[in-house]
Amino acid sequence: ELRLLDKLSHPNIAKIIGFVEDVEKSIAWLVFPWEDNGNLREYLRSGTWEIPERVSLIRDVASGLDYLHCRRPPVCHGDLKSVSITMSTIQRFCHFS
C-alpha cells in the first residue's frame, strides 16, 4: 500500500509524506500533511460555503476518484467518507487514505 500511495500524483489526492511502524506490534501508520482547514464534515457543518464552493467540492472529489479509478490497475479506496477528505489551505479538497 505504501508503494502504491507513493506513486500517486494528483492535485486532489493528498501526498503521503512517510510512515511510522511499531515492529513489535506489527502495526504501521501512514503520515499525510496536516490541513488547517479541517475535513469535509467540519466544512459542511460550518455553513459558510456557497454554490461555487459546492460545485468546486464535487469536482475536486470526482476528479480525485476518477484519477484513482482510471489507473491500471484501478485503485479502489473502499472507505471514502467525509472525515477522510480534507480541505487544503488553498481551498482545494484532498482525499487521503
From TrEMBL:
Pfam families assigned to the protein according to its UniProt record, in alphabetical order: PK_Tyr_Ser-Thr (PF07714)
Write the record's keywords in alphabetical order, separated by commas. Answer: ATP-binding, Nucleotide-binding
Q: Where is the Protein kinase domain?
A: 1-97
**What InterPro entries does the database record attribute to this sequence?**
Kinase-like_dom_sf (IPR011009), Prot_kinase_dom (IPR000719), Ser-Thr/Tyr_kinase_cat_dom (IPR001245)
A single Gene Ontology MF term assigned here is: ATP binding
Q: Which Gene3D superfamilies match?
A: Transferase(Phosphotransferase) domain 1 (1.10.510.10)
What's the domain of life for this entry? Eukaryota
Q: Does the keyword Hydrolase apply?
A: no
Q: Where is the signal peptide?
A: none
Q: Which SUPFAM superfamilies does the protein's record reference?
A: Protein kinase-like (PK-like) (SSF56112)
Q: Which cellular component terms (GO) are annotated to the entry?
A: plasma membrane
Q: Which PANTHER family does this entry report, sorted A to Z?
A: OS01G0253100 PROTEIN (PTHR27001), OS11G0664100 PROTEIN (PTHR27001:SF931)
- What name has this protein been given in UniProt? Protein kinase domain-containing protein
Organism annotation: Tulasnella calospora MUT 4182
